[in-house]
Design goal:
40% of the residues lie in helices and 18% in strands. With 214 residues, the protein is an alpha/beta fold. The longest helix has 21 residues. The radius of gyration is 17 Å and the shape is globular.
Length: 214
Amino acid sequence: MKITDAAVYPFPLGDASVRRLALEAAALGYDSIVAADTPSGTYGGVEVRSGLMIRDVPVKDVISAVKRYKDAGKVISVQAANNSFNRAVIGTKGVHILRGIQSADKTAFDHVAAKMAADNRVAVDIDLSAIIGGRSVSRQRAIHRYMDIMVLEQRFEFPVTLSTHARSLLDMRHVRDIAGLCSLIGMDVPDVERALAGVGMVLAPPKQAVTVIA
């Protein structure tokens, strides 16, 4: 599985070109990045996956967007909201990642949503910018929310992704530093390795059951 930063924002959403972000990612130990609203490509040996970030729309619009883009090779993410919305999104085939869980209510992702995410292979994203750039209360809230998520992950084994949400080269972090940041939320090295490979996991086709004929 490729080591992936699951969300970066090239120009015009950020201040660096996708090529610059990809080259920086290569220097920081990544094999791929998910770039918002950017065509797929490869720069300096780093694969750029096109990301579709859906936010602030009702479930029916999420379903419509997923139907439109699910065969376009995009990594489709949806911003978390309340519990019923999140369950509906997780149950929508073609959604890959649920983002922004640190900003949602504490009840927004419970054991039922966790089980659905595991069954449907929908990842929950850990947005590290909330830890890197967060201050006081907001940073502590994000850490505690992520710790809650990891408790559920240990029980239900749904996919997790890690993202810097970088909008400039300065926002990006080396893979070594990612492991240190993740230790704040109770992730050990194997947890971090799985999460860095999480994008590849949710994009991989499901394994076909093997039928044994006697």
